UniProtKB/TrEMBL annotation:
GO MF terms, alphabetically ordered: protein-L-isoaspartate (D-aspartate) O-methyltransferase activity
Subcellular location: Cytoplasm
Entry protein name: Protein-L-isoaspartate O-methyltransferase
Gene3D superfamilies named among the record's database cross-references: Vaccinia Virus protein VP39
Transmembrane segments: none
Taxonomic source organism: Hucho hucho (huchen)
An annotated GO cellular component: cytoplasm
Length: 210
């Protein structure tokens, strides 16, 4: 059993680490993170670490999930329609859903996507559209998006993703190879504005689907 206290401790740690948006903290308090990882690792579910989720992929550490969600929400009344690339175990998807987003999420590995579907169902969060596809192309049928979040590291920003952003929309993603940084792209009436944020460590964005 994962106690209430364990979950609260994660939220308190996120506050100390500088997360201020109560909407993000509430969503992360409510999502049972231990349901998204293997039982053998469940005791570490609320620690500030990334953990393996199979097929060489990882669930991001809580601070990174919080930071990226906070960046999408900053100065906004709501998240609106969000495209996630790299569903993984579905934890970030769950946090976005709890924070009120309408979520489309793309994963290139069918086996991982199946697990995410089970995890999200166990967490009673069934409203995301999960798509087995290569995220480089985005999801033109459902575009434009108010926000796009990519949870695998790209060498270069896929141009389709910027095309599929609404004016006023934001794209947050890790860019780099060995050395990676979070970048925020905002589509304004005057074009794209980009800002560089902290160093991160994500698995790479890979081509094609399997
Ligand atoms: N947000 C996830 C993080 C998963 S790790 C979580 O909370 O668990 C990144 C995921 O991106 C992996 O599952 C990987 O298979 C996926 N991925 C990598 N390249 C991709 C691509 N081109 N399109 C879609 N998914 C991709």
């Amino acid at each position: 059993m994962i106690s209430e206290r364990t979950r609260l401790r994660m939220i308190e740690r996120l506050r100390q680490q500088g997360i201020r948006d109560e909407r993000v903290l509430a969503a992360m308090y409510e999502v049972p993170r231990h349901l998204f990882i293997d039982q053998a690792l469940a005791t570490r579910a609320y620690d500030d670490v990334s953990l393996p989720i199979g097929q060489g992929q990882t669930i991001s550490q809580p601070l990174t999930v919080a930071r990226m969600t906070e960046k999408l929400l900053e100065g906004k009344a709501s998240l609106g329609k969000i495209l996630e690339i790299g569903t993984g175990c579905g934890y970030q998807t769950a946090v976005l859903l709890k924070a009120g987003a309408q979520v489309y999420s793309i994963e290139r590995l069918a086996g991982i996507l199946d697990k995410a579907r089970v995890n999200l169902r166990n967490a009673k969060l069934v409203h995301a559209r999960l798509v087995h596809s290569d995220g480089h192309q985005g999801l033109p049928d459902a575009a434009p998006f108010d926000g796009i979040i990519m949870t695998a590291a790209a060498r270069h920003v896929p141009p389709a993703l910027l095309d599929q952003l609404q004016t006023g929309g934001r794209l947050i993603l890790p860019v780099g190879d060995q050395e990676q940084f979070l970048w925020l792209y905002e589509k304004t009436n005057n074009g794209i504005q980009k800002t560089k944020h902290e160093a991160v460590h994500f698995v790479p964005l890979l081509p094609g689907k399997q």
